[in-house]
Specification:
Layout lengths: L4 E5 L3 H13 L3 E5 L2 H11 L3 E4 L8 H9 L6 E5 L4 H10 L3 E4 L4 H20 L7 E4 L2 E4 L4 E4 L2 E3 L3 H12 L5 E2 H9 L4 H21 L6 E4 L3 E4 L7
Parallel strand pairs: 1-2, 1-3, 3-4, 4-5
Antiparallel strand pairs: 6-7, 7-8, 8-9, 10-12, 11-12
Helix pairs in contact: 2-3, 6-8
């Protein structure tokens, strides 16, 4: 897998250089920014493939950086922050971050998050056209053209809402989706009762998948935050 160019946005010199050394040792190309304005300028001019973003920047909040980047770019953003409350994660993910890593973090975990993001980038570049695509994750498959789902070739009988949820998770494989992101896509709005309904639908979806093959259910719950469809290979 080709290594992508990573922009490190971190005002703490010690952490910044730790990440830079890690990337260099693993043959990633990288640039560094010490504040939000520099991060925006470099993202716009250098077009990095992935952004590692601290939220506590000296000149502007990292959430504002995410919002600004998302106004003109879909570059993957991995937040790396000391803010560890669920609400902080939800706000960052809802604003458009792709993943959230809490400080202190291990080098191995950082590299794992980068590999996940690389896989998603590769799938976006080489994946089939949406109009004739089949979304696959291990034995789990959704045929978008026919509007049907299956597990190991056996039909999966889903309600329309369950089908939408499964499709959305597969389209965002390995990415955490917040309750708000999912309910907005499914129902067009997000209210407290929507989240309760979502939990019921996800539970039903899991049960139907596991009835055919327990190993095929890769839906991971992030308590208080949302859901992620794990890549099947990472479950083994």
């Amino acid at each position: 897998m080709n290594k992508n160019t990573v922009l490190i946005v971190e005002d703490d010199a010690r952490i910044r250089h730790l990440m830079a050394t890690t990337l260099k040792l693993h043959e990633y190309k990288y640039d560094m920014a010490k504040n939000g304005k520099d991060a925006l300028m470099q993202t716009l001019s250098n077009r990095p493939d992935i952004v590692l973003l601290d939220l506590g920047l000296p000149d502007m909040d990292g959430l504002e950086v995410i919002e600004t980047i998302r106004s003109w770019s879909q570059v993957p953003i991995i937040v790396i922050s000391a803010r560890n409350e669920d609400q902080d994660k939800i706000e960052a993910l809802d604003q458009g971050a792709d993943d959230y890593l809490t400080k202190p973090f291990s080098v191995d975990e950082l590299l794992a998050r980068l590999r996940v993001t690389q896989r998603r980038l590769a799938q976006m570049e080489t994946g089939p056209r949406m109009e004739d695509a089949c979304l696959k994750n291990g034995g789990l498959e959704v045929d978008l053209a026919r509007g049907v789902a299956s597990v190991n070739g056996e039909p999966l009988h889903l309600t329309p809402i369950e089908y939408k949820i499964l499709t959305l998770l597969l389209q965002n494989l390995d990415k955490v989706l917040t309750h708000t992101q999912i309910t907005n896509r499914i129902w067009g709005h997000s209210q407290e009762n929507d989240v309760a309904s979502l939990r019921v639908y996800v539970a039903g979806l899991r049960k139907k998948i596991e009835k055919i093959d327990k190993k095929a259910s890769c839906i991971q719950t992030h308590i208080g935050v949302g859901y992620r469809m794990l890549k099947a290979a990472s479950m083994s």
